[in-house]
Amino acid sequence: MEHHAPGYELFGIHLDLAALLMIGITSIIVLILAISGARKISVATPSKLQNFMEWTVEFVEGIIGSTIGSKHGKGFIALGLTLIMYIFVGNMLGLPFSVVTEDHVAWWKSPTADIAVTGALTVIVIFLSHYLGITRNTKHYFAHYFEYKGAMLILHLIEVVSKPLTLAFRLYGNIYAGEIMISVILGAGWYGFAPLAVWQGFSVFVGAIQAFVFTMLTMVYISQTLVHEEEH
């Protein structure tokens, strides 16, 4: 049986209440993890959560160092850390269980399984990258558009437009497809127990990879507008 999301019309705008709920839950979980990992920091006897958070920060620093560079990238550690944690937690929420009412309304899902959520994240990333290019690298930001002529300019503009589309649809498609597969396997009853365990393990891997890819591409796009090629 196909499920549908709860909705509400506000000033002619359709709101997906399930997506809003999951966005809030994801934000709360990430906030709790961040606060808990930063509390009672110890150099001598760090907790497991502190070790995990430190590893995550170092991992994000590595992403930024390989894309933007240490000179320009220090200010983007918080952005990268927020993105990778938020997307990973959001990717995981739809894996353990689902909440569906008797009238087939699905209240619990991964927020990143909604194209509106991944689209909003992409809009923020693309806007930020162009804003930084215009405000911090104005001359080279506008000059690079004049480096292309004729068909090459058209191809370049297509590339600029396609970036946000691929960024949003890649994350959405992978997470949504994963949840569809879980629903299909659950329909097999007890026969689907073993395949479900295997698929959920694979989905954790995919969710982690997608969080990494989204964060990496975010830093790449910022690098392309912020750092001039001669500075690499």
From TrEMBL:
The keyword Transmembrane applies. GO terms for molecular function: proton-transporting ATP synthase activity, rotational mechanism. Belongs to the ATPase A chain family. It is found in: Cell membrane; Membrane. Keywords: ATP synthesis, Cell membrane, CF(0), Hydrogen ion transport, Ion transport, Membrane, Transmembrane, Transmembrane helix, Transport. It comes from Paenibacillus athensensis. One of its GO terms (biological process) is proton motive force-driven plasma membrane ATP synthesis. InterPro entries: ATP_syn_F0_a_bact/chloroplast (IPR045082), ATP_synth_F0_asu (IPR000568), ATP_synth_F0_asu_AS (IPR023011), F0_ATP_A_sf (IPR035908). Key component of the proton channel; it plays a direct role in the translocation of protons across the membrane. The gene is atpB. This is ATP synthase subunit a.
